[in-house]
Amino acid sequence: MTTMSNFFPIKILLVDDNPGDVRLVIEALKDCKIYNTLDTVEDGPDALAYLHKEGKYANRTTPDLILLDLDLPTLSGKEVLEQVKADKRLRLIPIIVLTVSQSEQDIFRAYDLQANAYVNKPIDLDQFITVIRSIENFWFTIVKLPGR
Q: Is 66 in contact with 93 (CB distance < 8 Å)?
């Protein structure tokens, strides 16, 4: 089966301040079947600057998918999620919350703020890679993304 994602790279924005988790996502996506590009930012203000193409992010293109940690310095992932989903130009970007929090309150709040999925980060390396590859398979192979 040929899809548009075979011809154009899927652009992913990873918002996570944990260097270890960032490395794991990079490694898991490196061997993806789908051509992708990954940009990373470490905090909420940088995520919003990236999405609004401000400052050092002025030349960035809008991502097709956002992987968002909830526990971020300065501006929380929930605040980023709320601002992105309130913005008419950005709200169609799928946002997958990728976090260690298993709090029911966080899960309900994320979905209330229009997260497209809530995924717990596994502690085990192999499980983490499996989760990222599952995200890749579902969001890049099965789902039709806006603008594709």
A: yes
For 128, the token pair is: 């983490």
pTM of the predicted model, to two decimals?
0.89
Residues near 44 by beta carbon (within 8 Å), at least 6 away in sequence: 15, 72, 73, 74, 75, 76, 77, 79, 80
Report the helix count and the strand count for the chain, using DSSP H and E: 5, 5
Angle at 5 between CA 86 and CA 79, to 5 degrees: 20
C-alpha radius of gyration, the chain, whole number: 14
Cα torsion 145, 54, 48, 60 to 10°: value is 30
| Amino acid letter, 65 | L
pLDDT at residue 60 tops 50: yes
Structural domains of the chain, ranges and CATH numbers in brackets: 14-141 (3.40.50.2300)
